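We read letters as residues; the fold follows as tokens. Both lines appear below.
***
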Amino acid sequence: MSPISFCHVLSHPCFKPNIFLGKGAACPPVIKPNHGDVICSVATHNTAAKCRFLCDEGYSIFGSESVLCTAGKWSTKQPTCERACKSLTITNGELKCTNKTFEDSVCTVTCNKPHVIHGVSSITCQRNRSWSSRAPSCVCPICTIGDKCEFSTSWVGVSNTLLAMQAYSSIKVDYGGKMFICTSELHSIKVLWTGKCFDKDTGIQTECSNDHESPRSSAIAAAASLIRELVVKQIYPVPCDADKMPSSADC
């Protein structure tokens, strides 16, 4: 016996008016839907034939996407292709529609916490097959990134961490899923401090000794300088509150 072959049902020469499953077991011919197509696996013995339906751009399947021939009957009513908007994909959230993506269907997005809606929460498929608004998405809250929004991109958070800087101590700083280490050392008999911050992954270090009168201010200036440099190199994300960073002249 020959293996199951695939054919384009209505245009391929292998198409037969009936699809046989064995002696006398035949299903009625499938009908190519308007604005779509159908592809079937033609069984030559007791293996069931299965037909899969496809729709042209701007249309979607109304009904089951596939039907199975069993004992001379199709498993379900053959579907049609109905006017529809483009399909929607939501990451980190859930999409619920009143009627899939067909005309007049209203689709509403809810986001998995801690993600939040970006855009409108509900959109409608209009008669011209376009959505009433740009599709919403689920994004991390401001100043966070990561699959679970677990990393902060806040400069204020970095600065607050470095407020604990003491003389000749070191502090690890987490920023945007990266980590760097800052220290502060006395560099003048006038009790002025030099701040240093070092990113181990890149080997890049910044040093600030512009007459800082405290370990914390020198370390904060060095951290701002390091983040700026690694943002330019597209290694660090841009701080969400970059306007609150000290001036580069402070370093």
